[in-house]
User: What shape does this take?
Amino acid sequence: MPITKRSRLVASTIAVVLGATALAACGSSDDETEAESGPVSLTYWTWTPGMDKVVDLWNDGPGKKDQIKVTVKKQASGDTLVTKILTAHKAGKAPDLVQAEYQALPTLVSNDALADISKDTGEAKTRFADGVWQQTTLGTDAVYAVPQDIGPMMFYYREDLFKKYKLDVPKTWDEFAETARKLKKASPDTDLTTFSANDSGLFAGLAQQAGAQWWTTEGQKWKVGINDAASQKVAKFWGDLVKEGAIDNQPMYTPAWNKALNTGKQIAWVSAVWAPGTLTTAAPDTKGKWAMAPLPQWSGGENLTGSWGGSSTAVTTDSKHQAAAAKFAAWLNTDDAALQALAKESGIYPAATNAQTSGAFTNPPEYFSNQADFYTQAAEIAKSTAPSAWGPNVNVAYTTFKDAFGMAAKDKSDFVAALNTMQDDTVADLKKQGFGVSE
Amino acid sequence: MSSLAIRKASPAAGTTPGTAQGPPLRRRIALVPTITLLIGAIYCLLPVAWVVIAATKSGSELFSTFTFLPGSGFADNIKDLSAYRDGVYWKWMGNSALYAGLGALLSTVVSAFSGYALAIYRFRGRETIFNVLLAGVLMPPVILAIPQYLLLAKADVTDSYLSVLLPLILSPYGVYLARIYATAAVPADVVEAGRMDGASEWRIFTRVALPMMVPGLVTVFLFQFVAVWNNFLLPYIMLSDDEKFPITLGLYTLLEQGANTPALYTLVITGALLAVIPLVALFLVIQRFWSLDLLSGAVKS
Assistant: This one.
C-alpha cells in the first residue's frame, strides 16, 4: 500500500538524518521533579480517536482538583510517531505524555526518552496481568509506561460457511492445516485464510505464542532470537501451507482482501481482539456470520496466545512535571470511569483486567451480536497471553520482515530463509547502533 | 521501445530540415507518438478517475462493488467529512491554503528580489552565491527538515504556523528560476535606459523589471504553491497540534488511527479529492498569465 510505503520512507528518512545529527548523546538532566505546586499544564501525543473526550473527564474531575490540565494533540500512529518523538526529544521538546506501542518502548527507553515513573504509579501494577505489565518494565525495576490496551490474538471464522463445508474449528495448528486442505478439496476457489506479510505484528504474535523470545538480554548484551526454534517452526508451518497452495498468499488490508472476506472467498482470519472493527469496514455484508474462537495451539494440552497490537501511556524525560504526568497516566488506564470512556469513545480493549468484562464489555461488539459471550471469552483468552520480548530495534526487524516475507510469500519460497535474513539484518543493525550483541 | 519510436519520429516532425523524408511518411509516423502520449495520459488519469469514483461510494460499497461503478454516497461522504471532529477537515484545508498561499507568495517575493539582483548587478561573490544556490537546488528539502526542526526548536518556535512558513520562504529553486528568467526577460539596455532617465534602482525594479518578470514569477509561485500544498515531512516534524495541521497531515492521521480502529477510507478518499480541487482551480486561473510572455517584452530583437 502506498501509505505504508510512504510512512516507511518518512521513518527511514528521519532515522537517517537523526543518525547524522546525533553527534553526542545529550547529557540529560535527571533532576528530581519537585513536589508539584500551582497549576500544571501537560501535552499528550496520542492517536486514539476520541481521546480528547476522555481527557475532558480528567480535566473536569481529578485534574481540576489537582490543578493538572492535559491537552491532547492527536497524532498518526505507527513507527513514524516513534521517530517523531525521538526527533522532538533531540531538541528537548517531546510532549509530557506519549502513547507508545509495547514493542516501541525499548527503542524509546534506549534513547533515554522515557522517564522511570515507578514512584508515581502507585497501585497500578495490580490491575494488569503480569505478562502485560512486564512489557512496561523491560525486565528492570523501573516502570516506563502504564499499559492502555492489548491485542490478544484469536481465530475468527465464518460460522455459516464452516457448517456448509463441514469444517470443524481447528484446536491445533495441525488441525488448522488439515482444515485448509479439506476446504481446498471441497471448494478449490475458496481459501481458509491468507499469509500476509504487510503487518509484522501478526507474525510476531504467532511466534510469541509458539514461545519465541526475539530479544533478550544477557548481561550487558542483547541476544537476538528471531530465528530461534519456535520462530522457525512457525515460519516453516506457514511457508509450507503457502507453498502447497492450501492457503492464499495475497496481502491483507487491500481492496482485494476486503472483497475476499466480504464474498466468502476467504472464510477465516487469524487476528486479535480488535478484529470486529476491521471486519465492520472490510466485510460489511457478512455481519453476524462470523464467530471467534481461541487461537489453534501447537500441542493439544496448551492454552496460549500471542498479542498483536496494544499500546501504553508513557511519560517523557523532557517533561518538567513527570510526577503529575504519571499520575494522569495511571488514572487514564486504571480508573473505572476513564476505562469505560475509553471503551465507549475510542473502542479500545483495555489492558486493565477488571475492565475487560465490565460496563462496555458486557455485551458483544455489534458485528458479533450472534456471539453473546464474546468478551467473556476474550478476557479468558487475554489471560493466556504468552510473554513477549521486545528489543531496541523492532522497527528494523519489522521492515525486514515485510520485505523478506513479502517476497517469500509472493514467490512461495523458503520462509525459514526469510527468517534468517530478518535475524541477520536485526543483529547487524544492533551492532551498527553500538549495542553489544551476544552471538 | 517508445523512446526508439520517438527518435525515429523526430526527423519527420521537422526538427532537422532537409532530410529526404516526404510528407506521407510524416503522417504515418505521427501515430506512434500519439499512441505513446495517449497511453501516458491514461496512465496518469486512471488513478484520478479512481479517486473521483471512489469518493462517490459509501463505506459498504467501497470495496464490494465494481471499481469504476459510481456509488451512492457522495453527499453523505462530504457530510461525514465535514462533521468529523467538528469540521476539523476544513480547518486543515484552511491551514493548507495559508501555508501554500502565504508561503508561496513570500517565497516568490524573495525570489524576485534575489533573482533580479543576481541577474542585473555585478558584485563580488555573485557567482559563488549563485553556485551555492544551485547546490541548494540539488538538495532535496526532505533532508533539511530535521536540521530545520532542531534550529527552530532552539528559537522556540516549533509547533506554530511560523515554523512551517519560515523554512519555505527561501526557495533555492525559485531564486534560480527568477535569476534565469530575469536574465532573459530584462535586457540590460532597459535598466541602463532607466538609469539615464534618473530613475532610482527601486523604481527601475518595481516599474520596469517586475512587469517583465511576471510570467517567470507566476511559474515560481505555482511551483512553490504545489510543493507546499503537497509537503508532508516538514509540517509532520514541526507540528504537533493537529489544529495547525495542513491537509496532507490531517488525512494521514485519518488513515493511521492505530491497529484497533479501522482506517477511515471513505473520508480519506473524499478528503483527498476535495484537496485537489484548489490546485486544479489555481492552475486554471493562473494559466493565462503565462501568455503574457508575448506582450511583456520591451526590446525588439
